[in-house]
Write a sequence for this structure.
């Protein structure tokens, strides 16, 4: 294999590993707990930003950059700081959004939160250095003196290890009493509350936990690409992960991994292989979003359970639920 | 003082846009019990239709109703052929939120494919400038505010004093009961989606006149629209009118005093406070949802 291909393949693998961690975290929140966290990418962005500024060092005086917390901390600390910061922010957000509201109301508020976060990050130049963001973030393992492809392999190893640990954790939670509680809330919130389950508390718990993993995945991403800007963490990025869960099977961790492989990785890469003139690149990248939206609708229509369904989903409740819209009983 | 008054002037203009948009948004929620998160993208479709027409030499006051009617038709079609089939297929399996966001995303990027990512604005002759104290508005801005006010008044009359309005209110509060009383709920729903789509389209053209827009502008307008609708109690048109006035004037005055880029922060603040303190909105009444208390 030529080294260019080696390099290409390994970077795809790195992205896959990072997306897998993120997908599993979102699966805990959305697939298992039923929280439509359209603000997920914001927590990734926070983790990435904090990891970035704690690696890059203080702003260089002449360069007109401004960001907070400029520090040059050794390797694992920025990642942990990123995860901690994301968890810290997700606590008040979760406390505010998950209280007393029905699911789609929460989804709307979290979507609005994500939209606003992008605006604020772009406009608060003093905090986030505006639309240009921060760049030139040092990569963590450069001191090892590896080749370009060798570096990628090493980085993939670390990212894959993190993804694997996240997977084990997610499996554990999924089959723990907490997992059962979260599923019960997802499948029938009123019934769960009626038998004495602390719905709000359990939701906030998984929201913060998922937020921490989101932050970590963002940190791993930013250390790899070495740059951060508000525009690259827009609300639509969350949608790709949600679509991946829908396709793979939300609520099932294996489904989450499969979905992440199929949607963000495979589709994007296959489209990337189409030879294009530069004029067509914009059109095709727009069509890629249209395609992802279409695939999501298609899968929701045909296989709402996904490729690998969550076997523990309660599909039938004793009394047929009435559709709130048509007023007719549902199957 | 004059910055404050000019803020109020812009605030009225924003409130006019928001009133049209938020009432449409809230009517759709009321009648179908779903948050149409593709709403802001539909607005943008109207802005682009208006832009294309005015570029082709059509007068903007002719382009506005054409674009509004087009989006009305689009709304009915999307509701009939996308949302409703998904709803009747089984709400228990998934939330409609994903469906509406998918549609919104598809619309947003289809616009980008056809119109490009660059910023546009509907250009028009603003007419002469009128000022009272520090409050400055152009003729066209006054026309926009008047159009919005007339639309609100007409919609109020429709809701309160016509059989159709009564049917819409009945369908909105209980579909099964409405149907049992012989109201053709599906047809009422279509009409409601058409009216709300027309309002959405009118708001979109106003957006295109007020500010320069690109394909991503729509989604950012979801913030104040949601805030206005939620402030007035989601699903309640009169509340949305009030909410639009508060959020529109409030955010522009805030922007005039501080930084213009932070005007959405007011909208989000409103949303957050309402959600925490009074999720049913400022008007008396209760939230029409199966809410579980913590």
């Amino acid at each position: 294999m030529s080294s260019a291909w080696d390099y290409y393949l390994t970077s795809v693998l790195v992205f896959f590993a990072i997306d897998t961690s993120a997908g599993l975290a979102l699966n805990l929140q959305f697939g298992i707990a039923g929280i439509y966290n359209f603000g997920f990418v914001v927590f990734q962005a926070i983790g990435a930003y904090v990891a970035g500024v704690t690696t890059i060092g203080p702003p260089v005086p002449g360069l007109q950059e401004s960001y907070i917390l400029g520090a040059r901390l050794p390797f694992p600390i920025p990642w942990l700081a990123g995860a901690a910061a994301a968890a810290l922010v997700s606590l008040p957000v979760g406390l505010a959004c998950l209280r007393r509201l029905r699911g789609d109301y929460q989804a709307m508020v979290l979507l609005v939160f994500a939209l606003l976060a992008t605006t604020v990050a772009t406009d608060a130049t003093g905090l986030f250095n505006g639309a240009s963001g921060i760049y030139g973030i040092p990569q963590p393992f450069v001191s090892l003196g590896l080749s370009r492809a060798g570096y990628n392999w090493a980085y993939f190893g670390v990212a894959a290890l993190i993804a694997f640990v996240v997977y084990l954790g997610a499996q554990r939670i999924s089959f723990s009493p907490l997992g059962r509680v979260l599923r019960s809330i997802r499948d029938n919130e009123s019934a769960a509350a009626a038998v004495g389950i602390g719905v709000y508390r359990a939701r906030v718990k998984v929201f913060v936990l998922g937020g921490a993993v989101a932050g970590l995945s963002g940190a791993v991403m930013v250390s790899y690409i070495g740059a951060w800007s508000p525009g690259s963490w827009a609300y639509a990025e969350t949608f790709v992960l949600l679509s991946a869960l829908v396709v793979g099977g939300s609520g099932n961790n294996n489904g989450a991994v499969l979905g992440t492989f199929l949607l963000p990785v495979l589709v994007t890469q296959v489209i990337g292989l189409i030879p294009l003139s530069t004029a067509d690149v914009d059109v095709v990248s727009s069509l890629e979003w249209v395609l992802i939206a279409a695939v999501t609708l298609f899968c929701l229509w045909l296989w709402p359970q996904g490729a690998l369904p969550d076997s523990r989903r309660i599909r039938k409740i004793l009394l047929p639920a009435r559709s709130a819209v048509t007023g007719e009983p549902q199957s | 003082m004059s910055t404050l008054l000019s803020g109020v002037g812009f605030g009225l203009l924003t409130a006019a846009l928001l009133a049209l948009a938020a009432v449409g948004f809230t009517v759709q929620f009321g009648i179908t019990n779903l948050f149409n998160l593709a709403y802001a993208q539909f607005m943008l479709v109207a802005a682009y239709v208006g832009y294309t027409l005015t570029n082709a030499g059509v007068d903007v006051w002719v382009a506005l109703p054409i674009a509004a009617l087009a989006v009305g038709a689009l709304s009915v079609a999307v509701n009939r052929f996308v949302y409703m089939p998904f709803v009747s297929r089984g709400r228990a399996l998934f939330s409609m939120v994903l469906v509406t966001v998918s549609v919104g995303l598809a619309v947003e990027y289809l616009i980008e494919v056809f119109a490009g990512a660059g910023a546009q604005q509907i250009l028009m002759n603003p007419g002469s400038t009128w000022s009272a104290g520090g409050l400055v508005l152009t003729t066209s801005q006054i026309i926009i505010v008047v159009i919005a006010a007339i639309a609100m008044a007409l919609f109020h009359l429709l809701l309160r004093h016509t059989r159709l309005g009564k049917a819409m209110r009945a369908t909105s509060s209980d579909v099964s009961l409405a149907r049992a009383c012989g109201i053709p709920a599906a047809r009422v729903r279509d009409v409601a989606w058409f009216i709300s789509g027309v309002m959405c389209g009118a708001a979109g053209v106003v957006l295109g006149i007020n500010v320069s827009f690109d394909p991503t502008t729509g989604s950012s307008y979801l913030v104040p629209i949601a805030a206005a609708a939620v402030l007035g109690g989601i699903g309640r048109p009169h509340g949305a009118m009030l909410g639009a006035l508060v959020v529109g004037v409030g955010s522009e005055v805030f922007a005039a005093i501080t930084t213009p880029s932070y005007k959405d922060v007011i909208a989000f603040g409103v949303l957050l406070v309402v959600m925490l303190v009074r999720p049913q909105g400022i008007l008396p009444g209760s939230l029409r949802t199966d809410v579980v208390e913590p």
